[in-house]
From TrEMBL:
Belongs to the TonB-dependent receptor family. Keywords: Cell outer membrane, Membrane, Receptor, Signal, TonB box, Transmembrane, Transmembrane beta strand, Transport. Residues 119-224 form the TonB-dependent receptor plug domain. This is TonB-dependent receptor. Residues 1-19 form the signal peptide. It comes from Runella aurantiaca. The keyword Ribosomal protein does not apply. It is found in: Cell outer membrane. GO terms for cellular component: cell outer membrane. GO terms for molecular function: siderophore uptake transmembrane transporter activity.
């Protein structure tokens, strides 16, 4: 009997505790239609969730009290409503209506100024791309998904291993800094791998800044920034999954799971797995058209709830990838041999990123990141084994100074340890790993001159333990019309970069060319100017048209450009004895019609070249290799709301680019043709969070010429005759005096294919 009383007492306590809580349920709409994936949270508490496909959210077990309910979603106006949970009102049923922002100019961005500001208020032009944009052309990694962004081109650097980098406004990948949540993750050894394996289920948005940002972010931000912002655990679905397969036997899986560790720690786990194990040679050159890959990436983000909503987040990622490309009969037993050619790369990589706001009155935040990269690879018979470890710490002070000044002051320290088996880390015949310490300080002042004009001044000083002092200033100006339909931005700044040839340019390892350094490479310096104009038009029928035009100009000193042309058997590296220029104009146009049709189109015309001393003292202008003069992108979408069906048509167009031919006798064209990749997709949404999608990629079935790889039948140059001077001698078997060379690449070798996928999001 005594045990029964104890049990009854326990149940009464539980009922009493439960009775002190209630629920809030609501529906969020836009123009009468449900808004999904919106965040619903009680300000200053741990209560938070997201709306489902019907726009419905529910907060359960909310303790009695009065709260501020905040509804937020990128591209829509925030809603704040006071709600009370009490004994008399333990259940609240709400209907809330928001509205689209004017072309999403009030979206919050952090890239460009290193602090949260609205896109409209930012003096630095920042482009934002959400998962909705990337879903219009689903691909297995972020590298490929950037192909439909104007002015950005994923460039393949090798026909065999299919590694690549991101070009922004004609500048190669090493000039682009890649970050996760504002922390640098890609540099040196990881330049060609950093965008693979980021689970799409965890991506909140991608922010892009075109042009130098060295003032705030230091080296490697000369061409621009790509900042991947991951979801907050509070706003993510409980479970999300995305599985896709193609007719080429490619399989990709993205998984996200939200969970809690105790009362104050929310966590978000993500997994990406990609597998392609079918050697395919549709162009008949004896080599795989695309590399075989087996990749898994694990990511976990923790968010700790603290007093006064101070920030404390920690994230970690691990990536393992095993890839190979080469002659189709290759098996692992031939790795490193001269019998069957292949390029095999095994990568193990870990990353840790985080941010902690100090528990003091002033807004001072410590941000940190660290990563380790281990690469074990063979390029034919050439081994390349490398280890890289980077540690980064940064302290920033965000301070208002009066009504018109918004200051950001910071200090940073970066430590890089790099070692490989090449001459890059050799000294006097012995191994000498590279160790670089890079302390720096920076400051910026955002000055509000008046309601329509804003000025941003910035200055950074770094001390490179090898190259010495480096100073990088910048200036940004923004004018906004009173009706906020016109925005003009102008920027001017300086950048610098220290190159690591072997880690950034895998053409230095592939093929038969010899790598030659004619001098000790000096840091590159650049000066950049941008002019950006945004104009919005609102039509009487509810339609919207947005224009975004930019003119850019970058001037380089000490530019490091590989020379493929002087000697067809060599890649010659040196600082340019002259100067280099990247200049051009771009235009983006957005259409949003009242009938539900949406379209985006963009075009960039550019001229990227260098002026080099030809030996006579005269500067001769030369077009940069593998850089197109024109690129265009488009995306057209239409939704049939009543039946939950949507259609997306995406594509890009590239103009001719100069290619690295093997001398005057090479029969391959010196310039690529005009080429285009186009895709179409159908998506069916169901009411239970399920989506089924499918379509066709590369509708035109475009692939490069069959002979893109020179002498693919003789990859070890066993039948090539060399003269006493090291040059190739024409023979009946080799009348054009060629060597094996896979660096003649401008487009993917993968032709038309179908794809089918399924997505599912669970919010409860």
């Amino acid at each position: 009997m005594k045990k029964l009383y104890v049990l009854l007492a326990f149940l009464l306590v539980q009922l009493s505790a439960y009775a002190q809580t209630g629920s809030i349920r609501g529906t969020v709409t836009v123009k009468g239609k449900p808004l999904e994936f919106a965040t619903a949270a009680l300000k200053g508490t741990q209560y938070g969730t997201t709306t489902n496909e019907l726009g419905v959210f529910e907060l359960k077990n909310v303790k009695y009290g009065t709260y501020q309910l905040v509804i937020s979603s990128i591209g829509y106006r925030n809603i704040t409503k006071a709600v009370t949970i009490s004994e008399a009102k333990f259940f609240q049923e709400l209907t809330l209506q928001t509205e689209e922002l004017e072309n999403s100019l009030s979206e919050v961005v952090v890239t460009g100024t290193m602090k949260e500001v609205s896109k409209l208020d930012s003096p630095v032009p920042v482009e934002i791309y959400t998962p909705v944009f990337f879903k219009r052309n689903p691909v297995p990694n972020l590298f490929e998904s950037l192909q439909n962004i104007n002015g950005i081109r994923p460039q393949l650097n090798c026909n065999v291993c299919n590694t690549g980098d991101i070009h922004i406004n004609g500048l190669e990948g090493p000039y682009t800094m890649i970050m996760i949540d504002g922390m640098p993750i890609v540099s040196g050894l990881s330049t060609v791998y950093g965008l693979s394996g980021i689970p799409s289920a965890l991506i909140e948005r991608v922010e892009i800044v075109k042009g130098p940002a060295s003032t705030l972010y230091g080296s490697e931000a000369v061409g621009g920034l790509i900042n991947v912002i991951t979801k907050k655990p509070s706003s993510a679905p409980l479970v999300s999954a995305d599985v896709m397969a193609t007719s080429w036997s490619e399989f990709n899986t993205d998984l996200g799971v939200k969970y809690r560790l105790g009362e104050k720690v929310q966590s978000l786990f993500g997994l990406n797995y990609f597998n392609f194990q079918q050697p395919t040679d549709k162009n008949g050159d004896g080599f795989t058209d695309i590399t075989l890959q087996n990749r898994i990436s694990l990511f976990n983000k923790f968010s700790v709830e603290r007093k006064d909503n101070r920030l404390f987040t920690v994230g970690a990622r691990y990536v393992y990838e095993d890839r190979w490309g080469g002659q189709t009969q290759w098996t692992p037993k031939y790795r490193g041999s001269n019998e069957v050619y292949a390029e095999t790369i095994q990568t193990k990589r870990w990353e840790v990123i985080g941010a902690y706001q100090l528990p003091i009155k002033e807004k001072i935040t410590f941000q940190f990141s660290a990563n380790g990269h281990n690469q074990d690879s063979y390029y034919g018979t050439t081994p390349f084994n490398a280890l890289q470890t980077i540690a980064f710490g940064q302290l920033t002070w965000d301070k208002k100074a009066g009504e018109n000044h918004d200051l950001l002051i910071g200090t940073a320290l970066r430590y890089t340890h790099y070692d490989d088996n090449t001459t890059a880390t050799a000294l006097d015949g012995r191994n000498a790993p590279s160790v670089v310490k890079l302390p720096g300080i920076f400051a910026q002042d955002e000055i509000s001159l008046n309601a329509n004009n804003k000025l941003l001044l910035g200055l950074r000083y770094d001390y490179n333990s090898i190259h010495g002092s480096i100073l990088t200033p910048r200036l940004n100006y923004k004018w906004t019309s009173t009706d906020k339909r016109n925005v003009l931005r102008a920027s001017f700044g300086n950048g610098y970069r220290v190159a690591n040839v072997f880690t950034e340019d895998h053409a230095a390892l592939t093929g038969a060319r010899q790598v030659v350094f004619t001098e000790e490479l000096k840091p590159e310096r650049s000066w950049n100017g941008n002019l950006n104009y945004v104009r919005k038009f609102f039509l009487t029928n509810g339609s919207f048209i947005g224009l975004d035009a930019t003119a850019f100009y970058t001037y380089f000193n000490n530019r490091i450009i590989p020379d493929y042309l002087t000697d067809p058997n060599k890649i010659i590296y040196s600082n340019l004895a002259g100067n280099a220029v990247s200049r051009g104009i771009s235009l983006n146009v957005d259409f949003s019609f009242a009938n539900g049709l949406k379209a985006m189109a963009g075009a960039t015309a550019m001229d990227v070249f260098q002026r080099e001393d030809d030996g006579s003292g005269e500067l001769v202008k030369m077009t940069q290799l593998l850089t197109e003069k024109f690129t265009g992108v488009w995306s057209v979408s239409y939704s049939f709301q009543r039946i939950g069906l949507s259609i997306d048509y995406t594509g890009n167009l590239y103009g001719p680019m100069k290619l690295p031919i093997l001398g005057p006798m090479d029969p391959r064209p010196e310039y690529s043709p005009w080429w285009s990749l186009q895709n179409i997709q159908l998506t069916k949404k169901f009411n239970n969070g399920l989506e089924i999608y499918g379509g066709v990629k590369n509708l035109l079935n475009f692939t490069p010429t069959r002979d893109a790889i020179a002498r693919a039948f003789d990859p070890f140059d066993k039948q090539v005759t060399f003269g006493a001077d090291g040059q190739v001698i024409p023979t009946p078997n080799n009348p054009n005096a060629l060597t094996f060379d896979p660096s003649y690449v401008y487009a993917p070798n993968q032709g038309i294919r179908t794809f089918l996928g399924i997505r599912y999001n669970l919010f409860k």
